[in-house]
Amino acid sequence: MGILAIMVLNKAGGLIYQRDFNEGLKKLSSNDYLVLAGTFHGVHAITSRVSPVPGSGGLEIMESEHFRMQCFQTLTGTKFLIFAQPHQPNIDVIVKRVYELYADYVMKNPFYQIEMPIRCEAFDRNLLAYIQPRQ
Amino acid sequence: MQRQDPLQSPFVPFSPNPSLQQGTPTATAPLKHSLTASQSSNLRYSSSRKSIYDRHLNRTQRSELSKSSFAFLFGEMVQYAQKRVSGIQDLEKKSATPSFVPTHVSPAGPRHLKSLSEAIHSLTPRRLNLHGYTIGQRLLELLLWRDGRSAKRETRILGILQFITTTLYRSIFNKPADALEKSRDNEDEYMLIDNDPMVSSYISIPKEMSQLNCAAFVAGIIEAVLDGCLFPSRVTAHSVPTEQFPGKTVFLIKFDESVLEREAVL
Amino acid sequence: MSFYFAIVGTKDNPLYEAEFGTSKQGGDGVARFREEQRPMNQFIVHSSLDIIEEVQWASSTMYMKCVDRFNNLFVSCFLTAGNIKFLLLHDTKADDAIRQFFTDVYELYAKTLMNPFYEIDMKVTSIVFDSRVRGAAKKYL
């Protein structure tokens, strides 16, 4: 799997989780990541209105020569962004699994405050265990 | 935890967790024949006229529970245990009674607020323990009833620990506990090891509360079973994360001296 | 033939008491203790608690047959896992019948415990419990 990075945004568009899985990526400052997340949230909302097809959701896939970004929005407004290599197969499966891990280790954790940055060690551990062997 | 002083003889009737019981036994008048008839019925019958006495005790023996449902409920229990203290006055009242003395509550000054949060966190395992305590009392009777005619009470330390490690654990978690060890340093300490306690499998403790282990709930169940069989003890849960099992928990079982004396006599 | 049945909790406090007479062989199920005998029943049963304390560590069974004698009365005991004692005061020996009676009452007690509003060492005041205990007594004793 060539997963490059994963980002999770909350309902209001704030960044609550960001993780790089590939060493060669350019590191942005944490402020830059927040700006990126906010920008994406806005773009997602605009695209859902601007779309010529009525009743469509927001931006889902963005592809370029160097990467492919996929966005999965849950029913509660939480967005999962997966950045991967351009010809990465099975991103849907990966997204579903990440969502499952989020539902388990973040939502069932009594010490996690909803919509706050994710600081759950179990979530980090299991995510790494899932992504890492397939890099 | 405050306890009533036991008499010197090892064969003294022991009462389980005193913080749960209120009042002392009162004298009763000799029985009158018309006792039950004169009591007004305060029983509210359900529409089908069935009471709990009609349910069979083995009905839920094989049933399983969704781990997610339990995880959500348990998460709420942990939050409830954390938020119980309503304010500083309540905490001071609690800390004035000898049974709840968190070690770092100071009596005066601006250090109050910092010690409040520390004190809350130090009380949480106690409350989780109490939650599990009532469950353990009931589970003990139920499990022994299900043995039927071959039910035996445990009278030796090793016997009761084996019962907990296999039968009790299997009935709750469908697998026996991983190891049972006797401490080399102290005669009265035993350790029950669980590599991955199911109750806290989805919980990550933040760094500032690293001494809290939510398996204190299971420790409460174990403590109730031990108290019920007349082995007074304290059971605490400690996390010892390893590479392979990051959630590994050790339940430290510390028996009272009366148990050791009795064990020596037997 | 009369029986006096008591459930004693962990702090030696009585949780439940009942008197029956036998229903077999033409008995009408009403206890016939002499008037001055009735308060003595509680004392006799209470004093046998000491003996039970000592004997319970020797045997690991729950049903201990006849633990004590007083004049012509016998006290039999059934000790549950949680150290709750079921005591029966009777004047005739009937081991098997008494054992079955105790087993039935044990089941009823376990069901009482399952009530989340019932804590250990609380008095059992349920009418259903009482009627079931009497039914068991009628069946076995």
Automatic annotation (TrEMBL), chain A:
Pfam families: Sybindin (PF04099). The keyword Transport applies. Keywords: Endoplasmic reticulum, ER-Golgi transport, Golgi apparatus, Transport. It is found in: Endoplasmic reticulum; Golgi apparatus, cis-Golgi network; Golgi apparatus. The lineage of its organism: Eukaryota, Fungi, Dikarya, Ascomycota, Pezizomycotina. Part of the multisubunit transport protein particle (TRAPP) complex. It comes from Discina gigas. The keyword Ribosomal protein does not apply. This is Trafficking protein particle complex subunit. Belongs to the TRAPP small subunits family. TRAPPC4 subfamily.
TrEMBL record, chain B:
InterPro entries: NO_sig/Golgi_transp_ligand-bd (IPR024096), TRAPP-I_su5 (IPR016696), TRAPP_component (IPR007194). Residues 17-27 have a biased composition (Polar residues). Keywords: Endoplasmic reticulum, ER-Golgi transport, Golgi apparatus, Transport. Residues 38-49 have a biased composition (Low complexity). It is found in: Endoplasmic reticulum; Golgi apparatus, cis-Golgi network. Residues 1-49 are annotated as: Disordered. Signal peptide: none annotated. Its main location: endoplasmic reticulum. Part of the multisubunit TRAPP (transport protein particle) complex. Plays a key role in the late stages of endoplasmic reticulum to Golgi traffic. Belongs to the TRAPP small subunits family. BET3 subfamily. PANTHER family: 41-2 PROTEIN ANTIGEN-RELATED, TRAFFICKING PROTEIN PARTICLE COMPLEX SUBUNIT 5. This is Trafficking protein particle complex subunit. It comes from Discina gigas. The gene is trs31.
Automatic annotation (TrEMBL), chain C:
InterPro entries: Longin-like_dom_sf (IPR011012), Sedlin (IPR006722). SUPFAM superfamilies: SNARE-like. It holds the Pfam family Sedlin_N. It comes from the Eukaryota. PANTHER family: TRAFFICKING PROTEIN PARTICLE COMPLEX SUBUNIT 2. This is TRAPP subunit. It comes from Discina gigas. The lineage of its organism: Eukaryota, Fungi, Dikarya, Ascomycota, Pezizomycotina.
